Amino acid sequence: MRTAEIRQRWLDYFASKDHAIAPSVPLISPDPSILFTIAGMVPFIPYILGTQDAPWPRVASVQKCIRTNDIENVGRTTRHGTFFQMMGNFSFGDYFKQGAIELAWELLTTPQDQGGYGLDGDRLWVTIWNEDAESADALVRVGVDPKHIVRLTREEIFWDTGQPGPAGPCAEWHYDRGPEFGPEAEGGTVDPGGDRYLEIWNLVFDQFVRGEGRGKDYPLLGELERKAIDTGAGLERIAYLLQGKNNLYETDEVFPVIARAQDLTGRRYGAVAEDDVRLRVVGDHVRSSLMLVADGVTPSNEGRGYVLRRLLRRTVRSMRLLGVEEATLQHLLPVSRDAMALSYPQVASDFDRIAQVVYGEEEAFLRTLSAGTTIFEGAVGRARTAAGTGSAVLSGEQAFALHDTYGFPIDLTLEMASEHGVAVDETAFRSLMQAQRERARADALAKKTGHADTSAYQQLHATLSGETGAPVRFVGYTDTTARTKVVGLLVDGVPAPTATAPADVQVVLDVTPFYAESGGQLADTGTIALEGGALVEVDDVQAPIKGLSVHHGRLVDGTLTLGDAGTATIDTARRRAIARAHTATHMVHKALREELGDTATQAGSENAPSRLRFDFRSGAGVPSSALAQIEGRVNERLQDDLEVTDRTMAIDEARALGAMALFGEKYGNEVRVVSIGGDWSRELCAGTHVRRSGELGLVTLLGESSIGSGVRRVDALVGDQAYGYQAKERALVSQLSGLLGARPDELSDRVSSLMSRLKESEKALAQLRQGQLLAAAGSLAAAPQQIGTTLVVTHDAGDVASADDLRTLALDVRGRLGEASPSVVAVGGTSKGRPVVVIATNGAAREAGLKAGALVRTASGVLGGGGGGKDDVAQGGGADASRLPAALDAVAAAVRG
Q1: Which of 319, 343, 316, 298 lies closest to 84 in space, CA to CA?
Q2: CB of 381 closer than 8 Å to CB of 865
Q3: What integer is the mean pLDDT of 599-621?
Q4: Which terminus has fewer CB within 10 Å in the chain: N or C?
Q5: What values do phi and psi take at 7, rounded to 5?
């Protein structure tokens, strides 16, 4: 049974059991505390925690997930993969243990020709909490062998959030794969060793309220008023069971990539264990990269982009270790696309954009490998210099720098070091890597505490929702001022009944005209004036929990008390300027797509007063001519004075209308659609806008630039700032016209003429310097230093235009010395502030064991750098130009032996 069919059977089965079907959210997590969607329950966390009401009593999904915390195990076990699909069914106050167990048993054991998975019920084992009699009874009733029900302690089988709140026992379903996979379960465990008992489905019963405590040492304070079910079944695990494969890498969605990698490398899967690991890494990482880029992730040096970059680089590295040094993703990625398109058609429809990002990153990393090789050889040269006559060792710090700074994988460093006869201090390297991981874990832990930090807001949200049905009523789309009441007050993040000026406060109002920062739009500022005389100057508004606007400000006068009534007023001039920028952002987005194509999708934005920043996906820079076209199109539509409207509708209706959505954003069942000029521009958006495009006045694009692999950024000014910018440009043009004695329309030609003359002068100067340099060839060849039978010429040429000039001089001098005697020519110079050395040897010198590559490494080591080349001519360099005479002397000393 193909993986896509297993997936569809899950959805069809639960749809037949009256479950709503929720589409997979993107891999970019909707939870701001984590980078990726790492579990099937992530989209449903607000409903499980009770911070939001679920829109359905029961729901099912197949969720795309990414986990890379154990990336080193990928390919080495049957269970570790970075991309996986988690099938889940959820109940919020509907069915509970009995219902969840009945559904699981029925789907797993129903014959395949009747819509089930057809697993043998006699081979199912279930682990439960040793105090969960209800689950034990339900399991026996559906048909699970009582001997296959394993009871575990709370420490082994309980779920919680790590803080006070929902908690409950689990029922973990395992499948016995047979004795060929490991020993039989004995003594109350289903993990006796090997891969025999495979966990395929976990049912989590959110039953209790837990108290304070560490680990699993906490009290259970009572049962939840509204219990929930949260389950997760691994699609890949069920797939390799049903397909009769040994692991997830051999399933129909992964192995085609491995098969293509076999063709490219000539290695056979199953022949050599270490080759198998590398082939499995390639199969897994290519699929993960495909899915990440499809969901809007692009390579970078931090966050999600760094994870993607690491996956792609590990793929390139693995192919290199399998013997292929050229680009291969152009052959592998289309195979993964074809395997995944049955379940995710967008990987096919959006493949041109995906491929552009992936191939560009591979090309960049291959260049990194080339540059890293030079850095590596420099490090090896320094290690040899430091070792003297002893064994050279590349330090852990040098190996770590190659890995961390230059993206040079440690496996590649070890491989190349072995080829050079140099050891690597792996222990020190691993220690540095461990320290880096610990820092990363500490940072991740700090980010996770964001859940705990919002506990006061969660409590307030729950209280207000219970009283009014909605925590805060936002009226800012139509009103700039509102009568309101203080319903929440925090001082330094701690709930307080009152505050006295001066104080920094966080205020929650029952009604607010203030827009909380979201969707790239900056928050409103303004004032809250209370009837008792207190005055709060609002500097920022945030929504730590959906629907709860928290006004951050300074209490500058009076005493503020919970329950105070007053008036909230926003800064209308700022609001209008931001609204102009936000509408302009939508127009720039539309014009970009008209000019560059539909792949130029939004990757982020910021809408500030009279200024916008728009990030979009593109593998190449935007030509200035195209940028001018985009700016012209925006201002043309602006002058058409298009109507700007907004309407709330069902998300399916919005999609049917063609409304654009932003990658990574989580949308509810109802969305707000902002349209400009009817159907010219239509986007899902919760921000504030002008009523007509003519209110923008003018939009000026300042330029575009790269902010990461496959992502570009446009900055623009709107309204008053755009007019001011144009006025400054006119003044500059006038000044240049005066300096050059030309009319404005003649400036381009005049500047081009001046630049051409400057280049011609620079070229003539370079030729003059080269002539002077080469003129020394005769005198250098006429007076060589004789060391034994070898003729040696060393020469410091001073400042040179490039290393090519030194190479030409060295070869000229070598040719003049002839082949009668061994000869070595070492020429050095300084190019752009850095020392360069070129060494050339004739045939007789090479026969005597004097090779240019070895000699240049000696010289480069003195310079604090590296180098390499062939036996007859080689080039190196370093960082310290003052050491050039010493480097040339070191060459002579090496010849002397």
Answers
A1: 343
A2: yes
A3: 88
A4: C
A5: -60, -50
Q: Using CA of residue 441, residue 447, residue 451, residue 454, what is the dihedral sign? A: positive
- Strand 535-545 and strand 498-500: the pairing is unpaired
pLDDT in tens, 106-123: 999 999 999 999 999 999
Give buried/exposed letters for 36-63 (b at 16+ CB in 10 A, else e).
bbbbbbbbbbbbbbbbbebebebbbbbb
Non-local (6+) Cβ contacts of 30 within 8 A are: 37, 42, 43, 664, 665, 666
Task: Measure the CA–CA gap between 336 and 260, rounded to whole angstroms.
Answer: 10
> How much of the chain exceeds pLDDT 70, in percent?
94
SS3 581: helix
What are the distances in angstroms from CA 773 to CA 439, 476, 767, 776?
A: 53, 74, 10, 6
Question: For 322-353, how does the pLDDT look when each residue is reduced to its tens digit (9 = 90+)?
Answer: 989 899 999 999 999 999 999 999 999 999 98
Cα separation, 480 vs 501, in Å, equals 25
Pair of tokens at residue 121:
């019920």
Q: Which residue's entry shows tokens 């209008």?
A: 576
Residues listed for the chain: 897
CB neighbourhood size of 531 (10 A): 9
Best CA proximity match to 670, nearest among 687, 648, 688: 648
Q: Would you say 611 and 580 are in contact if contact means Cβ atoms under 8 Å apart?
A: no
| Nearest CA-CA partner of 175 in 221, 240, 241, 219 | 241
User: Do residues 108 and 124 touch, judged by C-beta distance below 8 A?
Assistant: yes
Q: Band of the pLDDT at 449, cuts 50, 70, 90?
A: very low
Using CA atoms, how far residue 729 sits from 146, 270, 410, 700, 718, in Å, is: 83, 67, 52, 11, 15
Name the strand (E) or helix (H) holding 293. helix 273-294
Q: Which of 597-615 are b and which e, b meaning 16 or more Cβ less than 10 Å from the residue's Cβ?
A: eebbbbbbbbbbbbbbbbb
Report pLDDT for 43: 85
Beta-strand pair 58-66/20-21: parallel
Average pLDDT over residues 485-510: 91
